[in-house]
Amino acid sequence: MAAPTGIKSPTRARIAARTLRTDRWWLYPTFTALVLLAFVVYATYRAFVGEHYFAEPYLTPFYSPCVTTECVEGSSHLGTWVGDWWPLSPAVLILVIPLSLRLTCYYYRKAYYRSFWMSPPACAVGEPHRRYTGETRFPLILQNIHRYALYLALAYNVLLTYDAVMAFKSPEGEWGHMGLGTLILVVNAVLLGLYSLSCHSCRHIIGGRLRNFSKHPVRYRAWGMVSVLNGRHAQLAWASLVWVAFTDFYIWMVASGTWSDPRFF
């Protein structure tokens, strides 16, 4: 039988207690688990319900772009190029892109490894697992698609920005109008864009392989700006997650007739 690794390795100091910390270290992983679980439950319901996702001119980001023949009239800004062969809600086809980015995101990996797998639950707290294999086996080896998920997410951000621009129409299709939903969609596009740009992989793509910054002044300046965003990556991850759910909820309420959308002009 192979010797245990990690904190149970025979080369580590023997400490009977799981941790010597006396603070409430369990609050952060517990809160993280509750918020992530709530988002998963809500997003899953909204993705499969297949209704109340479009209220002219607002299209919820959960269903954007809506490209199947099941999309309600007016919601398919890019046309319907997926036929009746798709058996599920239009959102299921789209949410794979943002989901792949968040699942493989370095920050979210830390968040759900600690909160759900307790690997480890907090700094200086022992984990219950006897062995540590890292991300070298299935399914965690799929975390290596993160950079490619970022490329898709950046394209997805362009589509959400387009939706925000389209929100400056009136319900009758006239340009130059703005409602509360417009503001919500603009903030959503900005937050999701900043979250993607603050990604560690994005920072590495821009300047990670440069040997001499002085020979690449433009990329160095871009790397510096992205590095500033990268320092706020965790905050942007949470803000964009909560806001995209709120954006969907607001459009759901408007589309169902529960709320009216205040118009500014």
UniProtKB/TrEMBL annotation:
Keywords, ordered alphabetically: Membrane, Transmembrane, Transmembrane helix
Membrane-spanning segments: 25-45, 85-108, 148-169, 175-197, 236-255
Name of protein: Succinate dehydrogenase
